[in-house]
Design goal:
51% of the residues lie in helices and 16% in strands. It is built from 13 helices and ten strands. Strands 3-2-1-4-8-6-9-7 form an eight-stranded mixed sheet, with helices on both faces. Strands 5-10 form a two-stranded antiparallel ribbon. The radius of gyration is 21 Å and the shape is globular.
Amino acid sequence: MKKPILSIAIPTYNRANILDISLPNLLDQIENSSFKNEIEIIISDNASDDNTQKVIKKTVRKFNNINYILNTQSYNTGYYGNFKKCRELSTGKYFWLLSDNELIRKNLINIIIENIKKSGEVGIVYLENVVGVDEVSDNLTHINAFLLNEKVYMITLISSIIMLNDQKDDQYVFKKYINNSFLGFILLINALKKNRSILVIKGNVFESIPSKVYFNIFNSWTLDITEALDYMVNCSVINDIQKTKFISGYLEFVIYDHVLNYLYDLKRMKGKYGSPNQIQNLLEKYYGENEVYKCKIQPLFRKKIILLKVKRILKKITKKLNKYLSIAQKSDNNS
């Protein structure tokens, strides 16, 4: 059998109920794809103690004409150990680490591979998820042009990225960054080192089944992301100016929301990520000189609970309005 064009790797642990929905959704699409023989599926179970194995075996029997690599860890290696195993098992030209709670849109597999073949070799394929926009568009660009987008930080979302499967520097990365929650993003940087072109596939490409988050979001968006961005600069994929723009983007669109929601829900969260002072000190250490942090996030720590509630309500209204306007504009363009 020739080398697959795409390896889709799914690390999982104790997600039987979720996997029972997401796995058939993916495999049905692959089995009916024009490119079925050019795809390999890797499912790595991290020693689950629920019904995960039963779900995997039942689903694989139903879709038995697909190229599978099925792996069961002898013990729980942690998320990063299971991620590493998925990467090591992959043989495709491109590697897609897909979260076990993602439901991908109908015909997305065909769209991805058709566009890869049409574009020639690219460093990464970025799946830009736009809720409510059914029509899928594609655009081939370069990392320098892509970095002009204020939401460039979205390429840190590992399920949104399909990367050139260049494993040359993997051992270095796994040794140095094995516990970094942006490990997948760091591997993406290595793909961009080899090829700076980016294929953007935009539309309502997938939706996520709600699930628990097990990592400390504030540690991730300070220490971990800083390590990843420093590596990106050291590899000359971005420069210091582009790094600052990248940071400003996720401060405004990610960290702002995390801080707002955490401060409002502090009592219910029982200080899961630390006290407000601890969170503020951590953010000050990394972003104290950033203008977005000083103007938008720092003031949140001085707000009373009622004002935080108002901000949350306004944020939700704005989000719904923007979604509605986006759909309306798309409808006008097509009429």
